User: Fold this.
Amino acid sequence: MSTAVDSAVRPPGAAASGPTTSAAAASFAALLSRLDYLGAGEIEHVRRAYRFADEAHLGQLRRNGDPYITHPIAVAAQCAEWKLDAQALMAALMHDAMEDCSVSKPELTERFGAPVAELVDGLTKLEKLEFDTREQNQAESFRKMLLAMARDVRVILIKLADRMHNMRTMDDMPRSKWQRISSETLEIYAPIAHRLGLNFAYRELQDLSFRFLHPWRYAVLNKALNKARTRRKDLIARVQREVENVFAAHGTAARIVGREKTLHSVYQKMKFKRLSFSQVTDIYGFRIVVPEINDCYCGLGLLHQLYKPLPSKFHDYVAIPKLNGYQSLHTTLVGPFGTNIEFQLRTHSMDVVAESGVAAHWLYKANEPGSDTSQRLGAQWLQSLLDIQQETHDAAEFWDHIKVDLFPDAVYVFTPKGKIMSLPRGATVVDFAYAIHSGVGNRTVAARINGEQQSLRTELNNGDVVEIITGENAEPNPAWLSFVKTGRARSKIRHHLKTATQEKSIELGERMLSQALRSEGMAALPAANGEHKALWDKLLRFTGNKSRAELLTDIGTGKRIANMVGKKLAVLLTEAGHRPDALLISTERYASGADGSSAQGVVSLDGSEGLSVEYAACCKPIPGDRIVGHIGRGEGLAVHTDECPVGKRLLRRDSERFLEVEWSDEPSRAFESTIAVTVANGKGVLAKVAAAIAAAESDITHVYMGDEPDLSADDIRFSIAVRDRKHLAEVLRSLKRCAPVLKAQRVKSVKT
Assistant:
C-alpha cells in the first residue's frame, strides 16, 4: 500500500521487534465491551465481520510484532466511541481486507451486503492515495473516494479513526517516515476532522503530528506545561471550587470540567504572535455542561458576577453555530491573581456534538430535535468537494483546491502570477481588488475569473484565479457597498466616496439646481454668503439638510429632486424681492419639450462625471444617441437612450424624476457599446473579426459566444469601446469588409 501508516505488514513468520500487546487485544472481547448501544443481532453481524477479518489477516503482523487484527479492532473501537452503527463497525474491521488480502467487492457484497461493501470500497480508494504524488491515477483514486464520501460520510469517519490509531502507534514506524506522515495528517486529516466537527479527533491529531514533526519542541513545551500545571494546581482548584459554589447556590445543576490548551495550539500561538511560554496567559479553561440552553445564559451571568469578563473575548456560538455545527458560549474572565481563564458553557447534547461533530448524528438522531445539523453541514461540505472535482481536470490543480477547501472560515484565491490570497468566505471580486492594494480597488472596472469576465459582485470560490482590470480614470461605485464583505474594502470605498466623489456630486447638484431655478425664471443660483445667507438657512430648514454642500450632494446623488428644491428656492427669492424673468421661463419650458417631463433644463455630459452619473448597462448610450436622464433614489443620474425599454418604463412610472440631458461637443473618454456579429464557421474566424475591430481603432472589452451555435454560422457578441456613433459606424463597416462576417449590427438594448 502507498501511504497508509498501517500498510507496512510483516510477512508470515517474520521476526518481531517485541510485541507490545497481548493476544487478548486481538480478540473480539477487546471490542465487545464498547458495543452496549447495539442490539444483539447487530453485535452478531459485527462478530461475523471480525471473524472474516481475522481470517483474512491471519499471519500478518504490525511493525511492533502485534497481530495485524489489533489495528482493525482499534479502528472499530474508535468508531464505537462515536456510536457509529453496525455497518460502519463491520467496514472498520474489514477496511484493509480488499487491499491487503485480495478480497473482492462482490465477495463482501454477497457475505455482508452492498452498504458494507461500498464503505470498504470507498476506504480502499482512499488508502491508494498518495497525497503529494503527481501521477494522474492517484488523483483519480481520490476522486472516487470523494464520491464515496459524498454518498456516505461514514467513509471518512472510519478513515479518521484509522489515522488516529496509526498516529498513536507512530513510535513503531521508522523515523524517516515521521515527517511525511505527520505533515500529511496535520495538513489533511486534522482539517477534515475540524470541518466535520470532530474536535476531540482534531486536537489529538494536531498534538500527535506536532509530537512527531518537532520532537524536541514538543518535549520542551510539554515539560513547561507540566511545571505550570503543578504551580497553578491550587489556583485551578480554587476557581473550580468557587464556580461550583456559585452554581450550587443558584440551584443550577452543572458539570464543571477543567481543560487546558493543547500543546500544538500553545505552540502555534507562541509562533505566530512571537510570545514566550510565560506570555501565553489563557492556557487554562473550564467547560461547564448544563441541562438547558437557558441555563447557558444564566450561567454566563453568574460567571460575570463572579469574575470580571474581558469584553472582546465573548462569543455566542449557541445563537450562531460554527460551520461544523459547534455550539457553545465562550467567555474569558480575569480570575484570581489576574490569570485569564476561558469558560465554555453548553448543554449535554452540544457537548457531544462539540467533541464528536458529524459522528454525534448516530447517537442523537432519534432523541434530539435538530440534532442532524452537523451531519447536514458535513454533507454540504462533501458536496462542495464534488462540485470542485467536476470543474477541475488537472490532477495537481484539483488536489490544491481540495487542500484549500479544508479551512472553513476563509476563501483562498490566486493572482494570475500564482500568489495565494486569503479572504473571508463570501468575498467578492472587489474585496480581492482591495486586498491587493487600495489603488487597484479604486480603479477596478472589470475582472476575469479563471479566464472569463465576471461581474464585480461575483463571490469568489476556493482556487479561483482572479485578474483585475483597471481603468486610469475609474472610481469606486457606491453600489459596491451593498455586496463587499471585508472591512478593508468597505472602509476604502467609503473614504473615497466621502472625499473625491463628494466634490463631483456637489458640482452636479449645483448644475441641476441652477437649471431647475432657471425653469422658474431665476437666472442664477444665489450665493451662499452675504445677503442670501438667511435665504439658504430657510431652504435648509425646509429640506432638513445641515449645510448647502450636503443639500447639493443629495441632489447630485438623487436623494432629492432638483426641480422641487428649485421651486421652493424660487418662492424664497420672490419673497426676498427678486422678480422671475417671464422670457426666461418661456424659453426654458419651450426647451423642455411638449410633455414637460424635463422641466429642469439640460445637463451636458462628457463622460468625466464620475460616480454621480451612470450610463445604463441595459442600452449603453454613446455620444450621438438621443438620451434622457433619470434621477434614481439615492443612486445619482442614470442615462438611457430615448429608445431604451427600461427608460420608457421608468418614464411612465416616475416621470417627475426625469430631466433632459445632452452630449458635450467633446466627450472626454470612450464609451462601451455592444455589437452582434454573425460569422461563417472556419479556422481563425475569431482572430480575423478581432483584427477588423482593432483596424477601426476600437478595443474589445468582452466577448460572448452562444452555448448552442448554428451548424453553419455563429453569432458572437462583442462589447467594444467607441468614441461616438460615427466611430461605431466605422467599426461596423470594417467588420462588413471582413470575409467571414455575414452580418454586423449594434445591439441597442439588453433585456434586464
